[in-house]
TrEMBL record:
Stated role: Plays a role as an inducible effector molecule that mediates Fas resistance produced by surface Ig engagement in B cells.
The entry's keywords: Apoptosis, Cytoplasm
Naturally occurring in which organism (per UniProt): Caloenas nicobarica (Nicobar pigeon)
GO annotations of cellular component type: cytoplasm
Name of the featured protein: Fas apoptotic inhibitory molecule 1
Pfam short name (any one): FAIM1
Highest taxon, organism lineage: Eukaryota
Locations listed in the record: Cytoplasm
Amino acid sequence: MASREEVTVYEDEVRSRYSHLEKMTDLVAVWEVALSDGVHKIEFEHGTTSGKRVVYVDGKELIRKEWMFKLVGKETFTVGASKTKATINIDAVSGFAYEYTLEINGKSLKKYMENRSKTTNTWILSLGGMDYRVVLEKDTMDVWCNGQKMETAGEFVEDGTETHFSVGNHSCCIKAVSSGKRKEGIIHTLIVDDREIPEAVE
């Protein structure tokens, strides 16, 4: 049986963990944005009477404006390790209805994600009971794993290139091979411990 003090400490811990959710009575939009360093959650509060605006990224408060006489407008901030620019646009639709759109690097979230799928490859894998998200940025050949930029070693091989890195004590290699077709370009394959990992669709 837990003592009353232990229970109180536990309750305080739970309360502080969820306190930002209790206060979020004006939550109007939630977006999930997949970047190289991970998937980030953006939450937006908008008080349509007070004009209050609050932006949370991954549960942390980034912007708070209590009283705004102008109910429409935009809030700009950065997301993730690479400080990617994000803007929330607040537009009046009719009467007291508002529309909230998220732009990433000046593009609508949909356009940004479509473009991103052309410039990056993402793999999700499980090693020794741990989940890993590996992202290759094709333009720079940077490799990210669970939010960390990896140390890599690249080498030219007979049919293309190989980028080597390790996750834990597992050897990983991203092979880049020409598809032989102009439209498809280069095909990137992740091999971990001699096993090919299927690409994830985010």
